[in-house]
Write a structure and sequence with these properties.
heterodimer; A: alpha/beta; Rossmann fold; 5 helices; B: alpha/beta
Chain lengths: ~150, ~140
Protein backbone atom coordinates (compact mmCIF):
# COMPACT_ATOMS: atom_id res chain seq x y z
CA UNK A 1 0.00 0.00 0.00
CA UNK A 2 1.22 3.48 -0.78
CA UNK A 3 0.86 5.49 2.41
CA UNK A 4 3.79 6.39 4.61
CA UNK A 5 3.73 5.95 8.34
CA UNK A 6 3.20 9.13 10.33
CA UNK A 7 6.40 10.36 11.87
CA UNK A 8 4.84 11.97 14.90
CA UNK A 9 1.51 11.33 16.65
CA UNK A 10 0.06 13.42 19.46
CA UNK A 11 -2.13 11.41 21.85
CA UNK A 12 -4.42 13.54 24.04
CA UNK A 13 -5.74 11.22 26.74
CA UNK A 14 -6.13 11.40 30.52
CA UNK A 15 -6.87 7.75 31.26
CA UNK A 16 -3.58 6.03 32.16
CA UNK A 17 -4.94 2.60 31.20
CA UNK A 18 -5.87 3.82 27.73
CA UNK A 19 -2.51 5.60 27.37
CA UNK A 20 -0.74 2.34 28.21
CA UNK A 21 -2.78 0.35 25.67
CA UNK A 22 -2.46 2.93 22.90
CA UNK A 23 1.29 3.30 23.52
CA UNK A 24 1.66 -0.44 23.35
CA UNK A 25 -0.34 -0.64 20.13
CA UNK A 26 1.53 2.23 18.45
CA UNK A 27 5.10 1.93 19.75
CA UNK A 28 5.62 -1.81 20.05
CA UNK A 29 4.35 -2.36 16.52
CA UNK A 30 6.72 0.39 15.38
CA UNK A 31 3.91 2.35 13.77
CA UNK A 32 5.27 5.73 14.71
CA UNK A 33 8.69 7.28 15.26
CA UNK A 34 7.61 9.76 17.90
CA UNK A 35 4.62 9.59 20.22
CA UNK A 36 3.84 12.70 22.29
CA UNK A 37 1.28 12.54 25.09
CA UNK A 38 -0.82 15.33 26.55
CA UNK A 39 -2.89 14.37 29.60
CA UNK A 40 -5.40 17.19 29.42
CA UNK A 41 -6.77 19.68 26.90
CA UNK A 42 -4.69 22.66 28.01
CA UNK A 43 -1.50 20.61 27.86
CA UNK A 44 -2.41 19.66 24.26
CA UNK A 45 -3.01 23.29 23.29
CA UNK A 46 0.28 24.39 24.93
CA UNK A 47 2.11 21.59 23.10
CA UNK A 48 0.65 22.63 19.73
CA UNK A 49 1.39 26.31 20.35
CA UNK A 50 5.01 25.43 21.07
CA UNK A 51 5.06 23.47 17.80
CA UNK A 52 3.85 26.54 15.91
CA UNK A 53 6.55 28.71 17.54
CA UNK A 54 9.14 26.12 16.47
CA UNK A 55 8.16 26.90 12.85
CA UNK A 56 5.89 23.85 12.56
CA UNK A 57 8.72 21.33 12.80
CA UNK A 58 7.50 19.87 16.08
CA UNK A 59 3.89 19.62 15.00
CA UNK A 60 2.35 16.13 14.86
CA UNK A 61 1.26 14.46 11.61
CA UNK A 62 -1.86 13.06 13.27
CA UNK A 63 -3.75 13.67 16.53
CA UNK A 64 -5.69 11.11 18.60
CA UNK A 65 -8.05 13.12 20.82
CA UNK A 66 -10.26 12.05 23.71
CA UNK A 67 -13.35 14.15 24.50
CA UNK A 68 -13.70 13.97 28.26
CA UNK A 69 -10.51 15.65 29.44
CA UNK A 70 -9.61 17.73 32.50
CA UNK A 71 -9.17 21.52 32.30
CA UNK A 72 -10.24 21.80 28.63
CA UNK A 73 -12.37 19.18 26.89
CA UNK A 74 -11.73 17.57 23.52
CA UNK A 75 -14.39 19.62 21.69
CA UNK A 76 -12.62 22.82 22.70
CA UNK A 77 -9.22 21.42 21.72
CA UNK A 78 -10.62 20.34 18.34
CA UNK A 79 -12.10 23.79 17.75
CA UNK A 80 -8.74 25.38 18.62
CA UNK A 81 -6.99 23.11 16.10
CA UNK A 82 -9.43 23.50 13.23
CA UNK A 83 -9.63 27.31 13.30
CA UNK A 84 -5.84 27.71 13.43
CA UNK A 85 -4.19 28.13 10.01
CA UNK A 86 -1.05 26.29 11.17
CA UNK A 87 -2.95 23.32 12.55
CA UNK A 88 -6.23 22.85 10.72
CA UNK A 89 -4.94 20.43 8.11
CA UNK A 90 -3.64 17.95 10.73
CA UNK A 91 -6.08 15.00 10.80
CA UNK A 92 -7.79 14.58 14.18
CA UNK A 93 -9.20 11.18 15.13
CA UNK A 94 -11.65 11.47 18.02
CA UNK A 95 -11.20 8.43 20.27
CA UNK A 96 -13.78 8.49 23.01
CA UNK A 97 -15.82 6.22 25.22
CA UNK A 98 -18.80 8.33 24.16
CA UNK A 99 -21.22 7.16 21.48
CA UNK A 100 -23.54 10.02 22.27
CA UNK A 101 -25.14 11.57 19.15
CA UNK A 102 -24.56 15.10 20.47
CA UNK A 103 -20.82 14.43 20.92
CA UNK A 104 -20.59 12.90 17.43
CA UNK A 105 -22.39 15.75 15.69
CA UNK A 106 -20.46 18.42 17.63
CA UNK A 107 -17.18 16.75 16.69
CA UNK A 108 -18.05 16.64 12.97
CA UNK A 109 -19.35 20.21 13.05
CA UNK A 110 -15.96 21.20 14.48
CA UNK A 111 -14.29 19.33 11.57
CA UNK A 112 -13.14 16.14 13.29
CA UNK A 113 -11.74 13.81 10.63
CA UNK A 114 -13.50 10.84 12.18
CA UNK A 115 -15.07 9.65 15.41
CA UNK A 116 -14.26 6.28 16.97
CA UNK A 117 -15.95 4.94 20.09
CA UNK A 118 -13.45 3.04 22.24
CA UNK A 119 -14.71 -0.48 22.92
CA UNK A 120 -14.75 -1.53 26.56
CA UNK A 121 -13.52 -5.08 25.85
CA UNK A 122 -9.77 -5.45 25.48
CA UNK A 123 -9.99 -7.77 22.46
CA UNK A 124 -12.29 -5.33 20.67
CA UNK A 125 -9.92 -2.49 21.57
CA UNK A 126 -7.03 -4.22 19.80
CA UNK A 127 -9.24 -5.04 16.78
CA UNK A 128 -10.20 -1.36 16.63
CA UNK A 129 -6.53 -0.33 16.78
CA UNK A 130 -5.69 -2.76 13.99
CA UNK A 131 -8.41 -1.29 11.74
CA UNK A 132 -7.31 2.28 12.55
CA UNK A 133 -3.74 1.25 11.81
CA UNK A 134 -4.62 -0.42 8.49
CA UNK A 135 -6.57 2.60 7.31
CA UNK A 136 -4.70 5.64 8.64
CA UNK A 137 -1.19 4.22 8.60
CA UNK A 138 -1.65 1.87 5.64
CA UNK A 139 -3.54 3.65 2.88
CA UNK A 140 -4.17 7.29 3.84
CA UNK A 141 -1.88 10.06 2.62
CA UNK A 142 -1.28 12.61 5.37
CA UNK A 143 -0.89 16.32 4.56
CA UNK A 144 2.75 16.50 5.64
CA UNK A 145 3.70 13.85 3.08
CA UNK A 146 2.86 16.32 0.33
CA UNK A 147 5.84 17.80 -1.45
CA UNK A 148 4.12 21.20 -1.68
CA UNK B 1 -35.33 6.15 -7.57
CA UNK B 2 -32.78 5.19 -4.94
CA UNK B 3 -33.81 6.89 -1.70
CA UNK B 4 -31.27 5.93 0.95
CA UNK B 5 -27.58 5.79 0.17
CA UNK B 6 -24.77 4.59 2.42
CA UNK B 7 -21.93 5.23 0.00
CA UNK B 8 -21.83 7.79 -2.80
CA UNK B 9 -19.02 6.90 -5.19
CA UNK B 10 -17.98 9.72 -7.50
CA UNK B 11 -15.63 8.25 -10.08
CA UNK B 12 -15.24 8.86 -13.81
CA UNK B 13 -12.87 5.97 -14.51
CA UNK B 14 -15.04 2.95 -15.33
CA UNK B 15 -12.53 0.28 -14.31
CA UNK B 16 -11.69 2.02 -11.00
CA UNK B 17 -15.41 2.32 -10.26
CA UNK B 18 -15.96 -1.35 -11.09
CA UNK B 19 -13.07 -2.49 -8.88
CA UNK B 20 -14.20 -0.24 -6.00
CA UNK B 21 -17.79 -1.51 -6.14
CA UNK B 22 -16.55 -5.10 -6.42
CA UNK B 23 -14.28 -4.78 -3.35
CA UNK B 24 -17.07 -3.18 -1.30
CA UNK B 25 -19.61 -5.78 -2.47
CA UNK B 26 -17.43 -8.70 -1.50
CA UNK B 27 -17.39 -7.30 2.05
CA UNK B 28 -21.15 -6.71 2.10
CA UNK B 29 -20.65 -2.95 2.13
CA UNK B 30 -22.20 -1.96 -1.20
CA UNK B 31 -25.88 -2.71 -0.61
CA UNK B 32 -26.79 0.95 -0.72
CA UNK B 33 -24.17 2.37 -3.03
CA UNK B 34 -24.81 5.03 -5.65
CA UNK B 35 -22.25 5.61 -8.38
CA UNK B 36 -22.10 8.87 -10.33
CA UNK B 37 -19.53 9.63 -13.02
CA UNK B 38 -18.53 13.25 -12.50
CA UNK B 39 -18.59 16.15 -10.06
CA UNK B 40 -21.64 17.83 -11.58
CA UNK B 41 -23.72 14.66 -11.20
CA UNK B 42 -22.42 14.32 -7.62
CA UNK B 43 -23.57 17.84 -6.76
CA UNK B 44 -26.96 17.19 -8.36
CA UNK B 45 -27.35 14.04 -6.27
CA UNK B 46 -26.11 15.56 -3.00
CA UNK B 47 -28.20 18.73 -3.32
CA UNK B 48 -31.22 17.02 -4.96
CA UNK B 49 -31.01 19.03 -8.15
CA UNK B 50 -31.11 18.27 -11.91
CA UNK B 51 -32.16 14.69 -12.49
CA UNK B 52 -32.36 14.16 -8.71
CA UNK B 53 -34.99 16.85 -8.03
CA UNK B 54 -37.44 15.35 -5.58
CA UNK B 55 -34.86 13.24 -3.78
CA UNK B 56 -34.96 13.97 -0.05
CA UNK B 57 -31.74 15.91 0.66
CA UNK B 58 -31.92 14.75 4.28
CA UNK B 59 -31.18 11.19 3.17
CA UNK B 60 -27.48 11.93 3.26
CA UNK B 61 -24.83 9.44 2.24
CA UNK B 62 -22.89 8.05 5.22
CA UNK B 63 -19.71 8.53 3.25
CA UNK B 64 -18.73 10.14 -0.06
CA UNK B 65 -15.82 8.61 -1.96
CA UNK B 66 -14.68 11.39 -4.25
CA UNK B 67 -12.21 11.20 -7.12
CA UNK B 68 -10.03 14.31 -7.45
CA UNK B 69 -9.69 14.67 -11.21
CA UNK B 70 -12.98 14.50 -13.05
CA UNK B 71 -14.71 16.11 -16.01
CA UNK B 72 -17.13 19.07 -15.66
CA UNK B 73 -16.65 19.72 -11.92
CA UNK B 74 -13.55 18.33 -10.18
CA UNK B 75 -13.42 16.73 -6.74
CA UNK B 76 -11.98 19.76 -4.99
CA UNK B 77 -14.85 21.97 -6.18
CA UNK B 78 -17.34 19.33 -5.03
CA UNK B 79 -15.65 19.14 -1.60
CA UNK B 80 -15.69 22.94 -1.33
CA UNK B 81 -19.44 23.08 -2.05
CA UNK B 82 -20.23 20.26 0.40
CA UNK B 83 -18.27 21.95 3.19
CA UNK B 84 -19.86 25.35 2.57
CA UNK B 85 -23.46 24.26 2.91
CA UNK B 86 -24.98 23.75 6.36
CA UNK B 87 -27.05 20.81 5.07
CA UNK B 88 -24.01 18.82 3.97
CA UNK B 89 -20.96 20.27 5.71
CA UNK B 90 -20.40 17.38 8.10
CA UNK B 91 -20.85 14.45 5.69
CA UNK B 92 -17.60 12.42 5.77
CA UNK B 93 -15.70 12.75 2.48
CA UNK B 94 -12.73 10.60 1.45
CA UNK B 95 -10.73 11.76 -1.58
CA UNK B 96 -9.52 9.02 -3.91
CA UNK B 97 -6.78 9.84 -6.37
CA UNK B 98 -4.53 7.90 -8.69
CA UNK B 99 -1.65 10.37 -8.52
CA UNK B 100 1.20 9.73 -6.06
CA UNK B 101 2.60 13.24 -6.26
CA UNK B 102 -0.58 15.13 -5.81
CA UNK B 103 -0.16 18.77 -4.81
CA UNK B 104 -3.81 18.82 -3.74
CA UNK B 105 -3.34 16.87 -0.50
CA UNK B 106 -2.84 19.92 1.72
CA UNK B 107 -5.60 21.85 -0.05
CA UNK B 108 -8.05 19.01 0.50
CA UNK B 109 -7.20 18.70 4.21
CA UNK B 110 -7.50 22.47 4.61
CA UNK B 111 -10.92 22.33 2.94
CA UNK B 112 -11.94 19.71 5.50
CA UNK B 113 -11.61 16.37 3.74
CA UNK B 114 -11.83 13.50 6.24
CA UNK B 115 -9.05 11.50 4.63
CA UNK B 116 -7.10 11.31 1.40
CA UNK B 117 -6.26 8.00 -0.26
CA UNK B 118 -4.05 7.23 -3.25
CA UNK B 119 -5.52 4.34 -5.22
CA UNK B 120 -2.94 1.58 -5.56
CA UNK B 121 -2.13 0.56 -9.11
CA UNK B 122 -1.86 -3.19 -8.44
CA UNK B 123 -5.22 -5.00 -8.47
CA UNK B 124 -4.70 -6.84 -5.18
CA UNK B 125 -3.45 -3.75 -3.37
CA UNK B 126 -6.38 -1.79 -4.76
CA UNK B 127 -8.83 -4.40 -3.41
CA UNK B 128 -7.09 -4.37 -0.01
CA UNK B 129 -7.13 -0.58 0.20
CA UNK B 130 -10.83 -0.30 -0.67
CA UNK B 131 -11.68 -3.09 1.77
CA UNK B 132 -9.76 -1.32 4.58
CA UNK B 133 -11.44 1.96 3.67
CA UNK B 134 -14.91 0.38 3.62
CA UNK B 135 -14.46 -1.42 6.93
CA UNK B 136 -13.08 1.69 8.58
CA UNK B 137 -15.78 4.11 7.46
CA UNK B 138 -18.79 1.80 7.48
CA UNK B 139 -18.05 -0.35 10.55
CA UNK B 140 -15.58 1.31 12.94
CA UNK B 141 -16.27 4.99 12.43
CA UNK B 142 -19.32 6.69 13.96
CA UNK B 143 -21.15 8.79 11.38
CA UNK B 144 -23.00 12.02 12.16
CA UNK B 145 -26.76 11.38 12.09
Amino acid sequence: MQSMKPNHILLVEDNEGDIFLLKEALEERKIVNKLSIARDGLEAVDFLQMGIVAADKDLPDLILLDINLPRMNGHEVLKFIKINDHLKRIPVIILSTSSNDADIITAYNNHANCFITKPSELTDFFIMMRIIETFWFGIVRLPNESSV
Amino acid sequence: MITEVDILLVEDNASDAEMTIDALKSNGLANKLKHVKDGAAALDFIFAEGEYVGRNIENRPKIILLDVKMPRVNGIEVLHKIRNDDRTKNIPVVMLTSSKEDPDIKTCYELGVNSYVVKPVEFEEFQKAITALGLYWMIVNQQPK
